[in-house]
Every structure is written in C-alpha cells, then in structure tokens.
Amino acid sequence: MKKNLKKMFVIFVVAVAVLVVLMLLTSGCKTNDNSDVKNFADVVSVDARWEPDGTGAVLYLSNLTLRFVNKTPGYQYGDLTIDWGDGRVETIGIDLRSTNGEEATENIWRGERARGYNFKGEITVTIKLTIQFLGYTSPAFPKTVTMMSL
Fold first, then answer.
1. Residue 144 has what pLDDT?
2. What's the pLDDT band for 30 if we cut at 50, 70, 90?
3. What are residue 79's DSSP bridge partners?
4. Is 106 part of any domain?
5. Which tens digit of pLDDT belongs to each residue from 103-140?
6. Distance between CA atoms of residues 146 and 150, nearest Å
7. Across all residues in the chain, what is the average pLDDT?
8. CA–CA distance from 145 to each of 4, 10, 50, 61, 111 (Å)?
C-alpha cells in the first residue's frame, strides 16, 4: 500500500511539474488581441476621378481606385475608410483580389454610385485600409491624398 501511495505521489509531482513547464512555455504566446499582427497589405496609391457638377466650379468624386500589394497568399476582405478632412467619414467594404506580394488594383468607388462629395478648393483625404485575415484584423495604415478642384 505504501509503495503504491509513493508511486502515485511521484506521478502527481511529475504531472504538476509538466503542467508548470507548459504554462511557463506558453506564457510568452500572444492571444488574438491583434497587437502583434503585421500589415497584410500596403497601399501603393489612391487614384480618384473627379467630374464637374455642371457649373465647372465644384467637382464630385465619381471613381476611386486603390492600388495595393497584398502580403498574404490569396484573397482577403476588409474595410476602406475615407476621412474627408471636414468631419465626413465613410467606410466601404472591399475585397483584395491578388496573390502574395503582387500589386493589384481595386475599383472601390464605381462610377454608378449616385452621390459624390462636392468640394471647392483643396481637400486632403486620408485613406485607411483594414484587412481581415485568419481571424485577425490588421492595423489601419493611412495614405493621405491632396486633391484640388478646378
């Protein structure tokens, strides 16, 4: 009986030691808090087509194209946030159709959209892209574009 009790105690101590070692080894692992996630894509450029409103004094946005490099293997989705600099912010859901490391073009704001944003003079637009990949969300990375009307 004493021999079995001693054997069970040794097994218990070894099991606790293994659990402690495993806890120490995994304590350095990060959880899904997105703090260690790298950018999944880089914005190369943002091209916009502006058209006059008829008077020629004010332009409106009729097309917005994003060029990017997707750093992941395949097709991702995310959000494009446009901060117009005057309090207006818009988020558009997008898909990134490219393969790992290749530059691609995505037509974000197609011409069939009925509304545009009017402005006169100069406007600075900040574009932020957020990509979803394997349950993580990449940090937004801004691209600022300054545009002038006629």
1. 57
2. very low
3. 93, 130
4. yes
5. 666 666 554 443 445 555 555 566 565 555 555 555 54
6. 14
7. 62
8. 76, 68, 13, 13, 20
Q: 16, exposed or middle or buried, with CB in 10 Å at 0-12, 13-18, 19+?
A: exposed
| Distance of alpha carbon 106 from alpha carbon 137, whole angstroms | 19
Number of domains in the chain: 1
What 3-state DSSP class applies to 18? helix
Other CB atoms closer than 10 Å to residue 34's CB: what's the count?
Answer: 12
State both tokens at 96: 């990134």
- CATH number for the domain harbouring residue 47: 2.60.40.10
CA dihedral for 110, 111, 114, 119, sign (positive or negative): positive
E strand or H helix at 131, and its extent? strand 122-133
Q: Domain span at residue 115?
A: 41-148
* Residue 18 forms part of a structural domain: no
